[in-house]
C-alpha cells in the first residue's frame, strides 16, 4: 500500500515569525496522524528555523523550487544541496513556476535529475489549463509533461496532478475526474518505469483541496494524497485534510 502524503505548499506566504507560529500549531495536531506522511514546503528563509521546530516529529520539510546546477552565478536561486541541508523533498515544475517563471518540461527534467542526484525526492507537478481541459486535451498534456519531465530519471519521485483551473480558485476537480487522469498518469509511469514501480509511486491531487472535500479525493483508487496551497496556511484546515487521509488508511 502507498502511504498517503499530505504536503503543504505555502507559496510566497509567511515570514519566519509567522511560519514558526503556524508550525507550532500544526505539530500537536499531527501527532495522531501516524499513517500519513506530512510534508511542509515553506518559503526558503523558513526552512532552517522550521527544521529545528520539527526535530523529533514525523513531519518532513521540502522546498518549493530549486535550480538544477550545484552552485554558481545564478542570482536569487537555491542550489539542490542547500535544500538538502534541511529538506527531503522539493516541489518541481509547479504550474505557477511554469506560467510566471518560464519553466518548461526541459527545465523540469534537469531539476528532477539534480534532485535525485542530491538525495531529494522531487514532487513533480503536472496539469492542464482550462482551455486544454475544455478541448479534451488533458490526457495528452499530462502524458507529455510526464514523458518529457521524467526523461532518464529514476522512479524515486512523487507526482502531483494539479489541474491549473482548480488551483486557488475554489473549483476543485471531482474525485472521479481527478482519479481518471491520475490513472492515465500511472499508465505513462508504467511505460517509463515498469508496472511494479508505477504502482509504488505516490500520485497526489492538488487544486482547492480542503477539509470538506479531501475525503472525496483520498477515497479514490489511485489518489495517494494531496498537495495543498491555501488550506495549508491554517493549522486546523491543514490538519483536517491530514485527518481525512489518516481516516482512509484506517478504513482499508
Ligand atoms: P490551492 O493550491 O490548494 O490553493 O488550490 C494548490 C497548489 O498550488 O499546490
The arrangement of helices and strands along the chain is EHEHEHEHHEHHEHHEHEH
Question: What structural class do the secondary elements suggest?
Answer: alpha/beta
Rg over CA atoms, rounded to whole Å, is: 17 Å
Number of domains: 1
CATH architecture: Alpha-Beta Barrel
Please report the total strand number as a whole number. Answer: 8
Low-confidence stretches: none
Oligomeric state of the chains? single chain
Bound molecules: 2-phosphoglycolic acid
Percent helix range: 40-55%
| Widest sheet, order of strands | 1-2-3-4-5-6-7-8
- The CATH topology is TIM Barrel
| Percent in strands | 5-15%
Number of helices: 11
Compose a concise summary of this entry:
By secondary structure, the protein is of the alpha/beta class.
Which short descriptors sum up this protein?
252 residues; alpha/beta; eight-stranded parallel beta barrel; 14% strand; binds 2-phosphoglycolic acid
If you had to describe this structure to a student in words, what would you say it looks like?
There is one protein chain. This protein is an alpha/beta fold and 252 residues long. It has one domain (5-251): Aldolase class I (TIM Barrel). 44% of the residues lie in helices and 14% in strands. It contains eleven helices and eight strands. Strands 1-2-3-4-5-6-7-8 form an eight-stranded parallel beta barrel, surrounded by five helices. Strand 7 (203-206), helix 10 and strand 8 (225-228) form a beta-alpha-beta unit. Helix 7 runs parallel beside helix 8. The longest helix has 19 residues, at 175-193. The N and C termini lie close together (10 Å). 2-phosphoglycolic acid binds at residues 9, 162, 167-168, 206-209, 227-231.
Amino acid at each position: 500500500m502507498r502511504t498517503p502524503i499530505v504536503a503543504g505548499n505555502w507559496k510566497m506566504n509567511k515570514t519566519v515569525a509567522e511560519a514558526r507560529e503556524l508550525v507550532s500549531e500544526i505539530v500537536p495536531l499531527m501527532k495522531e496522524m501516524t499513517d500519513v506522511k506530512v510534508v511542509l514546503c515553506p518559503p526558503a528563509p523558513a526552512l532552517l528555523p522550521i527544521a529545528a521546530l520539527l526535530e523529533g516529529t514525523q513531519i518532513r520539510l521540502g522546498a518549493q523550487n530549486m535550480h538544477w546546477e550545484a552552485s554558481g552565478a545564478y542570482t536569487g536561486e537555491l542550489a539542490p544541496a542547500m535544500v538538502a541541508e534541511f529538506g527531503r523533498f522539493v516541489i518541481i515544475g509547479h504550474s505557477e513556476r511554469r506560467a510566471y517563471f518560464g519553466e518548461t518540461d526541459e527545465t523540469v527534467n534537469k531539476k528532477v535529475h539534480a534532485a535525485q542526484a542530491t538525495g531529494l525526492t522531487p514532487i513533480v507537478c503536472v496539469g492542464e489549463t482550462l482551455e486544454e481541459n475544455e478541448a479534451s486535451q488533458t490526457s495528452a498534456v499530462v502524458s507529455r509533461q510526464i514523458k518529457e519531465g521524467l526523461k532518464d530519471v529514476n522512479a524515486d519521485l512523487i507526482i502531483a496532478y494539479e489541474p491549473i483551473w482548480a488551483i486557488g480558485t475554489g473549483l476543485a476537480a471531482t474525485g472521479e475526474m481527478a482519479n481518471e487522469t491520475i490513472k492515465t498518469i500511472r499508465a505513462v509511469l508504467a511505460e517509463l518505469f515498469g508496472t511494479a514501480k508505477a504502482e509504488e509511486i505516490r500520485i497526489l491531487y492538488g487544486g482547492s483541496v480542503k477539509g470538506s472535500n479531501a475525503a472525496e479525493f483520498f477515497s479514490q483508487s489511485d489518489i495517494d494524497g494531496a498537495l495543498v496551497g491555501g488550506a495549508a496556511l491554517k493549522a486546523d484546515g491543514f490538519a483536517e485534510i491530514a485527518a481525512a487521509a489518516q481516516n482512509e488508511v484506517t478504513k482499508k
